[in-house]
Amino acid sequence: MTGEAYRFCAALTCFILLAAPAYELDKKDLLGHWGSPATEQGRSCYSLSNSSELQVIDSVLTEDGWREFLSAVYRRSIQTEVRQD
């Protein structure tokens, strides 16, 4: 994952923590609820796997229950710099 993608995920997480009316946090998951019954209700789930992957699932509440509209997995790419002295 590029630095830009990490910054995007960090910004999204800050949005959930600061703007979402309700969120739950445990050791590796962040679940944010957003919207209102008058407009649209949704939730965003961020899960960190043991292999350092970040899975993001966004859903919206419909008459039939929760409907997923986005699912993505982000992986950290490790780049090494070779120094020649």
Describe the structure.
The chain has 85 residues and is α+β, with helices and mostly antiparallel strands. Helix content is 20%, strand content 47%. The chain has one domain. The protein has one helix spanning 3-19; strands spanning 22-25, 29-35, 41-48, 53-62, 65-75. Strands 1-2-3-4-5 form a five-stranded antiparallel beta sheet, with helices on one face. It starts with a helix and ends in a 10-residue tail after the last strand.
Q: Can you write the helix and strand succession as a string?
A: HEEEEE
Total DSSP helices: 1
Helical residue percent?
Answer: 10-25%
Q: Roughly how many Å is the radius of gyration?
A: 16 Å
Determine the N-to-C terminus distance: 29 Å
How many extended strands?
Answer: 5
Poorly predicted regions: none
Sheet with the most strands, sense and barrel status:
5 strands, antiparallel
The helix-and-strand class reads alpha+beta
What's the number of domains? 1
Task: Give short descriptive properties of this protein.
alpha+beta; elongated; 85 residues
